[in-house]
Amino acid sequence: MAVAAGNWYTSFVISPAYPDEIEKMESLQPNHMQVRVIMNRRTAVVLGVALLVLTARAAWAHDGHIHTIMGTVMERDAQAVQVKTPGGETLSIAITDKTRVVRGKQKAAVADVQKGSRVVVDIGNGEDPLIANEIRLGPLPVAPKK
After folding, report:
1. What CA–CA distance (Å, rounded) separates 131 from 105?
2. Residues 132, 70: contact at Cβ < 8 Å?
């Protein structure tokens, strides 16, 4: 059996006196089926990771616990409040008739939610559109002593 030039094993010295060694070396070459299996495994891993990433959003926004947003009020009107998070993202959160506003353990009015106020907003399950169930206001600023 002659050794064709350009194969990966042509750099080795192969003696024609040992034909079974040549066959053994030829069997070490990956065939097309082995390459397909490797590519299929790689494709399966990539698709699996993509599936995990795409379903992660659903896992974070599932029912069963309360999602909260913490930040500073940038603007408020009768229907919504814009809150800037510590990460710099500004979120618009709807205010409804059912929205409760509290400061500490005391009830407060929606009018108490002023621009610049620090708030923690309970948005329920966290799905769009964001609707405020409860807005917790930070403590009132202490007046400086004179």
Report:
1. 21
2. no
Integer Cα distance of 90 and 124 in angstroms? 18
Sign of the dihedral defined by the CA atoms of residues 53, 54, 60, 62, in that order: negative
Cβ–Cβ < 8 Å for 113, 76: yes
DSSP code at position 127 = P
Element (DSSP H or E) covering residue 29: none
Q: Which two tokens stand for residue 105?
A: 């353990």
pLDDT digits (tens, 9 = 90+) for 98-141: 999 999 889 999 999 999 999 999 998 878 889 999 999 987 76
Contact 134, 99 (CB under 8 A): yes
Q: Which superfamily is assigned to 68-137 in CATH?
A: Copper binding periplasmic protein CusF (2.40.50.320)
Cα distance between residue 43 and residue 88, in whole Å: 37
Picking from 54, 57, 92, the residue whose alpha carbon sits closest to that of residue 71 is 92
